[in-house]
Amino acid sequence: MVTAHIHSEYWQLKKNDLVENGDLKIGSVIKLEEYASNVLSKDPPKVVVILLNFEILGEMETNMQNAGGNDVQSKPAAPVQNENIEPKAVENKKSFYSKEPQNQISSSIQKPKSKEASAGSQGGATFNNLKIFGISSLNPYQNKWSIKVRVTNKSAIRTYSNARGDGKLFNVELIDQTGEIRANGFNEQVDKFYDLLQIDQVYYISRATLKTANKQYSKLDNDYEMTFNNDTVIEPCNESDDLPRISISLLPLKEIANKNANDYVDIIGVVKSTSDVTTIVTKATNKELKKREIHLVDNSNFGINCTLWGKQAEDFDGSENPVIMLKGARIGDYGGRTLSVAGSTVMQINPDIPEAHTLRGWFDQGGNEACMQELSNQLGSQGATGGGGSISSNWKYLDQLRDEKLGQGDKADYLSAKATILYAKKDNCMYMACATESCNKKVVDQNNGTYMCEKCAKSSTTFKWRLILSVNIGDFADSNWATCFQDSAEAILGVKAEELGEYKTNNDPRFDEIFNNVVFRDYNFKLRAKMETYNDERRVKVSVVTAEPIDYVANGRRLLQSIKAYAKSQ
User: Fold this and answer.
1) Burial class (CB in 10 A: 0-12, 13-18, 19+), 306
2) Prior bond to 44 cis, omega within 30?
3) The dihedral of CA 300, 301, 305, 310: what is its sign?
């Protein structure tokens, strides 16, 4: 398929009058003297032909005869998408406010009342002396257009560094009756437009640059994206409007199990619990990043963990169990199914829509005590609050480790268990490790006051203590050995590794007292089970991810849910 566009710059210089006076129209026969072509895509094939110079020879007759003498009705050519020609109307996109039953909730924008309201210029309306067009009619071969749009999402300001220097950028997502488009602002445009553009507000925009969209960053259904430049004009629209607020297709949580990792989904759920903000160091940039885990549930009686990042994680308040809607949340598969709020994700808290009101009523009238099927095997960070205690899932008794063959698959299995520490090994519970912050390799004492790290290939006069504690834990059903590393070991022993190392070095009796005091203490354990090979023998190794003191109120509520679920099954 070959699509012809007339390049606007040449028309401004040479050929505009042919369109304006009607000499060039549908049915015109032209002699093409000079042109250029660009291949936009190979599959499906799409070529843009730019007409640089041509001569009008005449017009096609309304009726022509074919070789057999039969009348053949000539077909008008498709309208050219140029700033001076009315673009072809397109089918409407989907929006938010009507339901489709069962598994998927979808919405549709009301059909535009006229062709002009769809893809072409809006009834002669203008902004900045330019006709107002629909988003779906825009392409890189136009430069005289304006649009009237609503902002549906705005990113935080991000910084970058490349060969040309440092910079900053942000992006917004825009919508009208015909579609959506992503717009980017860099450096000066960040200062000029970031505070002006606010989510859910309507604006007139003109004179931005259009280019092919980078689908790695934009998940919108548009082949193009917009970049603000020094000529871009943006003004708030204070008139009444019928623009859609968001285009979304909601999926019940239970359907996420059927999706693939890295897919993007639109969901709505109630925040049942939240974790404290924690800090991680990214491997790619070695920079610190804030994160917070929240646990979402819905009336399909499924639950899933969702990760918030950066400032959004720091500012989030889940203490009152809000309803949140996520457009474009990314699915992860680490420890079952999880969700992550990406930079392009739209998050609305307590949106004023029917689905949100339905979930609010369901949760308040007993949904908060319903027995959920958990899609996530992960446990959130320590210190989780709201809705009855820490984020936790996949509760098991220790005999189920063996009976359900947990950890014997290709991936690790995660489970939660309430258990008692029966014994803690103090022999070989810690070792001297490399003092380098990012290295935990065991060092060799050179007996000359220095310690050699084979991984870093260097010696140092200092080292750090690292814990690797083995504990035997048990419940009424069974017992099992589990390995605790630095953080979980310090939580159980109630002492930092450096302090414990001093007790060990100095033969301080407090070293033995610490190990004696942990016996017969109860914890809520988050465990990881994974098949490993040791001395040519394959066995399931159980590690402690977290060990938290028991919240007996939350624990009682969980037991009550289990009893109710058991009673219903009988």
Assistant:
1) buried
2) yes
3) positive
Tell me the per-residue pLDDT of 458-503, one tens digit each, with 9 for 90 and over: 888 899 999 999 999 999 999 999 999 988 999 999 999 999 999 9
Query: DSSP label at 138?
Result: -
Domains of the chain: 2-61 (no CATH), 117-236 (2.40.50.140), 249-374 (2.40.50.140), 399-429+468-569 (2.40.50.140)
Q: Which two tokens stand for residue 418?
A: 């309430």
Residue type present at position 115: K
Write the CA distances from 110 to 98, 106, 356, integer angstroms. Answer: 10, 13, 21
Q: What is the mean pLDDT of residues 205-227?
A: 87
Confidence of residue 123 (pLDDT cuts 50, 70, 90): low
Other CB atoms within 10 Å distance of the CB of residue 67: 6
Would the pTM count as exceeding 0.85? no
Backbone angles phi, psi at 419, to 5 degrees: -145, 165
Q: Considering all CA atoms of the chain, what is the largest pairwise distance in Å, rounded to the nearest integer? A: 112
- Whether the Cβ atoms of residue 340 and residue 329 lie closer than 8 Å to each other: yes
State the Cα–Cα distance between residues 343 and 361, nearest whole angstrom: 30
Interior angle at CA 438, CA 434 and CA 443, nearest 5: 15
Rounded CA-CA distance 291/306 in Å is 10
pLDDT in tens, 33-55: 877 666 665 556 667 777 777 88
Round to whole Å and give the CA distance between 323 and 319.
Answer: 11
The per-residue pLDDT for 76 is: 44
H or E segment and range at residue 97: none
- For the chain, count helices (H), then strands (E): 11, 35
